[in-house]
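pls ignore typos typing on phone
fe (ii) ion + seq
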Amino acid sequence: MIILGICDSIDSHACLIKDGKIISAISEERMSRMKADTGYPEKSINRVLEVSGIKSNQIDIVALAGYDNGLFDSITKPAALFTIQDWIEQNEKYWKPKLYQNKKLNEIDNFKIWLKKYPKILNNPYKELVKKTSNKNVKKHLNIYNEVRKKVICKHLGVDKSQIKVFRHETCHQYYGLFSQQQQKTKSLILTIEGGGDDSSATISIGKKGNIKEVYRTNDAMIGRLYRFITLLLGMKPGQHEYKVMGLAPHGQEYHGKKSLKHFEKFNKISGHKIFKKTVFKDIYFSSRKELHGERFDGIAWGLQTCTERFLKKWVLNCIKKFKIQDIIISGGVAQNIKAIKYLLDQKKVKSIWSGPISGDGSLGIGAAWLATKKFDKKNKVKKIDHVYFGSEISNAEIEIYIRKKCKNFKILKNVKNKQVAQWIANGLIVARCKGKMEFGQRALGNRSILADPRKQESVERINSKIKYRDFWMPFTPSILNEHINKIIHNPKKIYSPFMTVAFDTRKKFINKIPGVIHPADKTTRPQMLKKNINPDYHDLIKEFYKITNIPLLLNTSFNLHGDAIVENADQAINTFIKSDLDILLLNNFAIIRRTKKE
Ligand SMILES: [Fe+2]
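k done
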């Protein structure tokens, strides 16, 4: 059975599953080049069909994630389109009069503000929604929204409406967590925690033998929403830059953050496994702006992260006590907080913790497709994943075309071996590697990566200042040969983390050896643990680097410029190479070389 999974909320994407196995998955942002793209993922649907060699008339079921993604969000695409000023304007023009001045405003009024500012947003498959909801009877809007979505899918793919199955947002998160789990457990406690889904911001379920039973849900968990609005207050983009606030937090100190922490702790209380809202404030943005006026930015980040960690610790430990299960799966936006995951893992009562490769909404389509497999494909079981190389590949023919077109000023080498590439990196050169299938999700795991020598602080400085224009406080991450992992990190619970979703304490004797991939403030590192069978060629490259340097890891950051989506094809890779200060671009076994002094 062929199932197409679609997510049309934030980080929209498409995936194809054949007989229970994922055969391709691509995020819309890679195709549209609009980071955090939102809405109907037409381009990525076309691309997953193309790379899989499947025609739309072969699709048996379309699995659509979520019933309620915000009525107009798939048209306005706030996480992708809005500037920081737009987010502030939305709070001032819509939320302030609605919450504080008792003005009767609804989603249509909000939408009108953005339609006026960005009239092009109507170039959208869901534009019919605007006309159909022009009256103020908002009660019927959700039905109209879902009808429009189905209509667009039927028109695009030629499928019948009866083939489209819609799955609840939170349930997609739960199944994604369960089926992406790498170290299988007989019983797991599955928690979702996020800004909001179809009906809740936190759920508790029991997972057993591929089945899930939800035992608790609430829409009162505020931690995901807090993170979103505080990201904005700190001058960064909500829905995109929460990880930067998390990265900033260890630079802050209690002295500067205690007032913020006290403020954040006023939003929720936990009693047993249940989460309750404290109604101290009318909203997050305005109350926090007022309460935290004059507070230092690093202290605010520290306070927020500390609040998140304490909140999760209390909730998770209470859940363990209540349900007597110590193996945890955590999904939803807050599960992307790798520092909090580490903090949970450090708790004695937590035996193991799993957060999938993309635990936010960027994987809902996969969760939906797995749910559809479970429900409708009676012949096949969901086949577990051990990697995320589900995207497109670059052909040598394509590479040769773009080399001829765009690379006249560079030196070109063919049939380059890993030994040579490892030597370049050890000599201090910065290499972008585009080889094999593109990764699905926000992280580059070697195939669309910028690679550098982790021993050299100057590599970090060059990547930050001349290549990626990254924020100075954000650490880089390593790809580590799995067979050497215990030398580098403390991992007493033997967690296998192949997708960079957990931070670990670095062993003392390595902290000074690999400064390029250590968080400068808390000395943690967030590895991709790389087994040979998962990506043999990338593994071999790191092995060659190890032979030269005695260091079994490389600095690995995604191959994109600041604010851009990660590159997909040869054309984008070469354009990015030209615009940046990268030394070498590796496209399959071709090397495009800018400088030669350290070769
Ligand atoms: Fe979600």
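The chain has three domains: 2-170+366-376, 182-355, 396-593. The mean pLDDT is 94. more later
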